[in-house]
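Our consortium's second objective concerns turning raw sequence data into structural hypotheses that experimental partners can test. To show how far this objective has progressed, the report includes one record in full. It was chosen at random from the queue rather than selected for favorable results. The single chain below, 439 residues long, was entered without modification.
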Amino acid sequence: MILGIDVGGTHTDAVLVQDLQVISKTKVLTNQANIMASLLEAAEKLIQGDNINNINRIVLSTTISTNAIVQNKTSRVAMVLLSGPGLSPATLNLGKDAYFARGYVNHRGIPVKNINSREIADISSEIAQNQIHHIGVVGKFSSRNPQQELDVAELLENDARNISLGHTLSGQLNFPRRISTTYLNAAIHDIYQGFVMKEDAVALDIGGTTTDISVFADGVPLLEPSGVEINGRKTLIRGLYTKSIGLGGDSVIRIENGEIFIGPNREGPAAALDGPFPTPTDAMIVEGIIDFGDSRKARDAIALIAKKLRLGVEDTARAIIDKMAVIISDQVRQILAQINNKPVYTIHELLEGKIIQPKILYVAGGPAAVAPFIAQNLGYPCSIPEHSEVSNALGVALARTTAEITILADTERKELIVCEEGCVESIPRNFSLADAIET
């Protein structure tokens, strides 16, 4: 048996899978102050009697980190960059907490300019004065030789700091993307510590905090071959093409100049579950689309919005749902326009000249009941698959665990580098690919 658990900003979902069949599933509220308690609560609901002896794998996933990035609720990060010649630091748009230090290795990993210990000490002092506890260190060609990153980290290190090193996150070349990847890895450290088809289609995973949008070409998910983009930051994290927007069932609703705005922030659960603000979930409860929590509290919350709009409660609830559908639909159209203006990569191949024309909308997640409104806006039918309310947990349970490393063999220097592992070994001049595979 496989136990899959997905921790979202609102709910923690779990499924028990055996022989590719869902044996049981559950959903519990996520305790943001104690993620482990939510994991255990979900697991305990599924594991009974002899089941525990039959589980041979437990797989976890979470959207909490992505939620925090989309809502700009990440930690402050200082970036120490060994940029060397070439790219102007001004083009990187890194803000006030970026420090450009001396030190440079060339594209073959050969040191050209050494780091300056005194300069790093001064940077360390300034970071301390600014009370920043998360630091990213990135050298331009650190994937070819990580030693300068390691040396800088050693000079910056103290018990109160978390330091992310660019070379440990990807062995690929691309300095700006490695900077973004390292920045995000450092920015979500505190959060992390606390914690089917044969046609073109769009898939939505509507959670409590965000909506994740992905696209399929001929039934195959699209891939980000160079690295995914998270909240506008291009990274070296290879993954499926997905865009997250700050809109979910528990997003805060506000009125500005007579117009409805939803998200990107989530300040707690829906009012129906004793949350502090009206949310789309409350609107769905008022409209009778979903049924849980205290419907009276949901109605009272929507009534506050109705008063500002000078509408009835039911009309306001419908207007909120329509607004949510319009926002998501507009994002889907923007994504499709972007995709159709460049080569399409799937997990199997490059589809040159492929134009994505979705024929169906697949929707999962707790608030998936809003799917018909989105589908109507987009103009194609929708489908809510079986077990959609725990789809992430099911996906992670069935996912195959994989790992990838980058090997650089420089036979002239007689050196082998596995940058993700920080491994450097001596090799003979006749070292070959077959030797690398055997190693």
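The partners drew two points from this record. Residues 407-438 form one domain. The two ends are 34 Å apart (CA to CA). Both points have been shared with the crystallography group to help prioritize constructs.
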